[in-house]
Design brief:
Elements lengths: L3 E6 L14 E2 L2 E2 H11 L3 E8 L2 H9 L3 E4 L11 H14 L6 E4 L9 H10 L5 E8 L9 E4 L2 E4 L16 E11 H6 L8 E6 L11 H12 L5
Length: 230
């Protein structure tokens, strides 16, 4: 059986919501939900949190995660996520940790389910496979997406514009529910996971909320509290 390691990347300098990754979400730090779910899944051997914040790492350890102290120079607002991924994989390889699959579970999707992670793991067949979650979008570049040019609205794709949403091309959002691939593929990346064979699993919209601001945070809290996201 292949060994799967889960990773949660949680830097300390969040701007949209201060200390977002450890902000109390239904009475638990937001990071708790990614750690807790990963630890429940038998297919996942170990769970790691990578952060430049010692406070976050202390909380992560409390909830059952191993920790990786990430350098500040790859933990900035404009830092590449790929660099954080590579650092974590190299760190463990240098420690003699040999594992097959890399599973990233961002804190910002606390409504994910076990099945989402398990399906993503099953989709990894080849060394260059990269699996992510997508969800159906209500927005479409040929129906209701526009841009502003010199204070005037312009259609994003005027030549493909449709007056009927039902006949507009179906569009999907990339979620932050799960990213999964072979650990060796991470080390081969230059800029983006699109360098690989990108596969997907479809996530129900209600489970795919990505917490970016306080509105997302409050909505996700209500959904979880009322248990309407399974």
């Amino acid at each position: 059986m292949k060994s799967n390691y889960a990773f949660i990347f949680a830097r300390g300098g969040s701007k949209g919501i201060i200390n977002k990754n450890i902000k109390l979400f239904n009475n638990k730090p937001l990071i708790y939900y990614s750690i807790s779910l990963a630890n429940k899944i038998k297919e996942i051997k170990k769970v790691f949190v990578s952060s430049d914040s010692k406070k976050i790492l202390k909380i992560a350890k409390k909830y059952g995660a191993y920790t990786i102290l990430r350098p500040k120079n790859i933990s900035k607002d404009n830092s590449s996520e790929v660099d954080a991924w590579k650092h974590a994989v190299r760190y463990l390889k240098n420690k003699g940790e040999d594992f097959d699959n890399f599973i990233s579970l961002p804190c910002t999707s606390p409504l994910r389910a076990e099945i989402d992670i398990k399906l993503a793991i099953k989709k990894i067949k080849k060394k260059n496979d990269f699996v992510l979650g997508i969800s159906k979008s209500n927005m479409s570049p040929n129906f209701n997406l526009v841009k502003v040019i010199k204070k005037k609205l312009s259609l994003l794709e005027p030549k493909k514009f449709s007056v009927n949403r039902q006949v507009a091309k179906k569009i999907f959002n990339i979620t932050t529910v799960v990213y999964a691939c072979n650990s060796k593929f991470i080390l081969k990346l230059k800029k983006s996971y699109w360098e690989g064979n990108v596969k997907f699993i479809e996530i129900p919209k209600i489970r795919s909320i990505d917490i970016d601001d306080i509105v997302d945070f409050k909505v996700a809290e209500i959904i979880m509290k009322n248990k309407i996201y399974s």
